[in-house]
Structures are given as structure tokens and as C-alpha cells.
């Protein structure tokens, strides 16, 4: 038992360090390029690129179809059965490729049906390469096998290549089309290498996916997919709606502030979330009480540092904005201040919703909570973006993150799952 626990800790620590490396790189490399890009491109072109990325993110969500969680859990449970994981692997890849074709058709209809999109059609199609890269990169497989070092190495390599390429190819505002080209190339390169590593390093055997397996994977991912779509109502949709009611410059102000907050948020929370999700899933499969003990330890160990980061960002937002975004983006400072508390709120949101509700089989309830939150957010964003532009969108985002977290906590309380929020020193 002691050897097994020690092995689990080592594996979790190794995976956490690997994913932390990815997120540190994901924080440092944009920190290098962001000040350069906002100076060279200016708020208007920077906003256009952000708007295009926001639109394409919908298709990333469609093609992910919740597999980053559902397939991760399936792979984790069957990791010792090479035939089963091979069948899961090819079933997921096939579904994602079909969804990619559907997504491209939908994008084409959108772009050529509205003049707002048609005038900059190149940027939307060039940015679609991100979808292709995400589809072929089997991150869900590596997470399920708890081999995060593959994700870390490939992501750091492609981010390094992208960062160098930005300074080589982008020198003036008219070079803005290079951004989606380089951005998409980075994702596709990572995807191709990731697919190759998965096939050859883990000896995946070719198994033509059966109809029953495809249906099973679609059913497993459905609730997570709907929940993820709903989540996009208060993430991706905020930028897209703001772009419809204002202009690219206002989108640039919002995107500049949000990118800094999200970089810190994902740098802190993504490695933790992706590391512990398959572990909690395995624990919950054996003992829900053991899974809850583990989650409580995570809250006790990580809660205070995350809260301190939120407070620090709130206090130092003006200085950070001036250094990273320059004084042209002073309008981004209120966005950063309003969104700063969301880092801690999302930390709790992830634990209550993703880690507990999904792993405990409450997918339908999680979906309902997020759908309600997303619907309310759409209304708030439309109203507040008209009234307060980028500041209103930030307010709507914080309100919705808080609402969803509170709703999840109340749901778990009624299920007999309680948290004392004792932030004393703990060990995992």
C-alpha cells in the first residue's frame, strides 16, 4: 500500500511538473510576444485577430466534443488493455475528423453570408488551422495514460517556434495576416508530432472503430460537450458579442486585459486540473470518499496561494498593463481589475464542477447549471456591452463565474458533500 501511494504521488508530481512547464511556457512566451504585437499591430488589428480567434474557438469546442474529459476517463480506466484503448483512440479520432469537416462547412457559410466576415475572409480561414491542429493532437490520450511529459515537450517546442517566427515575420501593421498563419502552423505542428508519438510510443494497434464504440463515445462525451458549449457562452462568446456591438478597437482593449488574466489563470489552474482529473476519476471509481478526501486536501493546499494571486493582480493591474500592453491599452486596466477575482472563483468552480460532479456521475446536473449560467450571461453581456462596452463584458463574466460556483456548491451540499474550507497546511 505504501509503495502504491508513493508511486501515485510521484506520478502526480511528475504530471503536475510537466503541465506546469507547459503553462509556464504558455505564460512566458506570450509575455514576450504580447507587448511587441500590441505595439506593432495596434488595438484595431489586435482586436480583429482576437475576434477571429474567438469565432474559431467555437469550432475547437465542437471538435473537442467533451473528449478531453470523457475519453481521458475512458483511457485512464482501460490503460492496461491495449486493444481497448486502441479502439477508443480510433473512435475518438474518427468522430473528431467528421466534426472538423462539418465545422469547416459552417465556417464557410458564416464567412460568405455576412459582409462583416467576408471583408476579412482570409483571417478566418487561416485561423481555422488551429482546429485541425487541436483535432489531431491526442491530448486526451496522454492525459488518460497520465504521460503529461509528451504534452509538455511538444507544447513548449511549438510555442518556442511560434515566438521566434513572430519576430521574424511580423514587423508592421500590414503583416497582421502572418499572425493566424503562424498561430495555426504551431497547432498543426504540435498535432502531427503528438499523433506520431501516441501511435509509436504506446504501440497503438489499428482497430477499425465499431458502430457501438462510436455511439458509446458520443454518449459519454455528450453532457460534457453541452456543458462546454454553455461555458463558451461566458468565455468565447463574450468577445464575439462585444465585436458585434462595438468595434475591433474595443475588442482589442477587452482582449488585452483578458489575455493577461487568462494567462495567469491557466498557468496556475490548468496543470492542476488536468493532472488531478484522471486521478480523481480513478479514485471515485474505487471510493468516492477517498476522492473527496483528496479534493479537500487540494483545496487546503492550493486555495490560499490562488487567492493571493487574485489579490496581487487586482492591486498591480495598472503596472502590469503598462509594462505588458503599453499605455495605448489603458482601457484594459479596468478589465483586469474586474476579472482578477475570477481566478480564485474559477479554482473553486473547477473543483466543484469538473473534478467532483463529472467524476461522481452528475454530468446532467453539471450541464444544467452551466447552461443556466451561460444563458444568463448572454443576456448580461448584450445589455452591459451596449451600456459599458468592454467593462460591461468583464462584469458579466465575473458575475457568471460566481453564480455557477455557488450553484455547484449548493448542489453538492444537498447531495451531502460539504467543505469546511480549512486552509491549514496539508499534503497530498
Q: Which regions have little confidence, pLDDT < 50, spanning 5+ residues?
A: none
Q: What is the total number of structural domains?
A: 2
Distance between the termini: 15 Å
Number of helices: 16
Please tell me how large the radius of gyration is. Answer: 21 Å
Strand content: under 5%
Structure overview:
Helix content is 84%, strand content 0%. Helix 13 (288-324) runs antiparallel to helix 15 (342-358) and helix 15 packs across helix 16 (363-414). It has helices at 2-64, 67-77, 82-113, 115-118, 121-127, 129-136, 139-144, 148-169, 178-201, 211-232, 236-245, 248-286, 288-324, 333-339, 342-358, 363-414. It folds into two domains: 21-232, no CATH class; 241-428, no CATH class. It is mainly alpha-helical and 428 residues long.
Architecture blueprint of SSEs:
Elements: H1 2-64, H2 67-77, H3 82-113, H4 115-118, H5 121-127, H6 129-136, H7 139-144, H8 148-169, H9 178-201, H10 211-232, H11 236-245, H12 248-286, H13 288-324, H14 333-339, H15 342-358, H16 363-414
Helix pairs in contact: 1-3, 1-6, 1-8, 1-10, 1-11, 1-12, 2-3, 2-10, 2-12, 3-6, 3-10, 5-9, 6-9, 8-9, 10-16, 11-16, 12-13, 12-14, 12-15, 12-16, 13-14, 13-15, 14-16, 15-16
Amino acid at each position: 500500500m505504501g509503495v502504491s501511494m508513493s508511486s501515485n504521488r510521484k506520478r502526480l508530481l511528475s504530471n503536475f511538473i510537466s503541465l506546469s512547464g507547459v503553462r509556464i511556457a504558455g505564460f512566458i512566451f506570450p509575455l514576450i510576444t504580447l507587448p511587441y504585437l500590441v505595439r506593432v499591430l495596434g488595438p484595431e488589428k489586435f482586436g480583429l485577430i482576437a475576434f477571429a480567434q474567438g469565432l474559431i474557438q467555437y469550432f475547437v469546442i465542437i471538435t473537442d466534443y467533451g473528449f478531453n474529459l470523457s475519453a481521458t476517463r475512458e483511457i485512464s480506466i482501460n490503460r492496461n488493455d491495449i486493444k481497448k484503448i486502441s479502439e477508443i483512440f480510433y473512435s475518438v479520432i474518427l468522430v473528431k475528423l467528421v466534426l472538423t469537416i462539418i465545422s469547416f462547412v459552417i465556417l464557410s457559410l458564416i464567412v460568405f453570408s455576412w459582409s462583416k466576415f467576408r471583408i476579412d475572409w482570409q483571417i478566418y480561414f487561416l485561423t481555422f488551422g488551429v482546429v485541425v491542429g487541436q483535432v489531431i493532437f491526442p491530448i486526451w490520450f496522454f492525459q488518460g495514460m497520465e504521460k503529461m511529459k509528451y504534452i509538455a515537450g511538444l507544447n513548449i517546442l511549438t510555442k518556442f517556434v511560434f515566438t521566434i517566427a513572430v519576430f521574424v515575420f511580423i514587423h508592421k501593421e500590414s503583416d497582421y495576416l502572418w499572425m493566424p498563419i503562424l498561430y495555426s502552423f504551431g497547432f498543426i505542428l504540435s498535432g502531427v508530432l503528438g499523433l506520431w508519438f501516441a501511435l509509436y510510443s504506446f504501440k497503438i494497434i489499428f482497430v477499425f472503430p465499431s458502430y457501438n464504440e462510436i455511439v458509446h463515445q458520443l454518449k459519454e462525451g455528450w453532457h460534457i460537450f453541452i456543458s462546454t458549449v454553455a461555458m463558451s457562452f461566458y468565455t468565447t462568446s463574450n468577445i464575439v458579442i462585444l465585436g458585434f456591438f462595438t468595434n475591433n478597437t474595443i475588442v482589442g482593449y477587452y482582449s488585452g486585459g483578458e489575455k493577461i488574466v487568462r494567462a495567469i489563470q491557466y498557468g496556475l489552474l490548468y496543470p492542476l486540473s488536468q493532472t488531478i482529473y484522471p486521478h480523481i476519476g480513478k479514485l471515485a471509481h474505487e471510493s468516492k470518499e477517498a476522492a473527496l478526501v483528496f479534493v479537500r486536501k487540494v483545496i487546503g493546499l492550493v486555495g490560499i496561494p490562488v487567492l493571493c494571486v487574485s489579490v496581487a493582480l487586482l492591486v498591480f493591474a495598472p503596472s502590469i498593463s503598462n509594462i505588458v500592453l503599453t499605455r495605448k491599452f489603458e482601457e484594459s486596466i479596468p478589465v483586469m481589475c474586474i476579472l482578477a477575482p475570477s481566478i480564485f472563483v474559477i479554482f473553486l468552480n473547477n473543483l466543484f464542477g469538473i473534478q467532483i460532479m463529472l467524476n461522481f456521475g452528475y454530468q446532467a446536473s453539471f450541464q444544467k447549471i452551466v447552461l443556466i449560467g451561460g444563458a444568463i450571461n448572454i443576456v448580461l453581456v448584450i445589455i452591459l456591452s451596449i451600456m459599458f462596452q468592454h467593462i460591461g463584458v468583464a462584469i458579466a463574466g465575473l458575475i457568471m463565474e460566481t453564480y455557477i460556483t455557488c450553484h455547484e456548491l449548493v448542489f453538492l451540499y444537498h447531495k451531502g458533500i460539504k467543505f469546511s474550507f480549512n486552509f491549514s497546511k496539508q499534503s497530498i
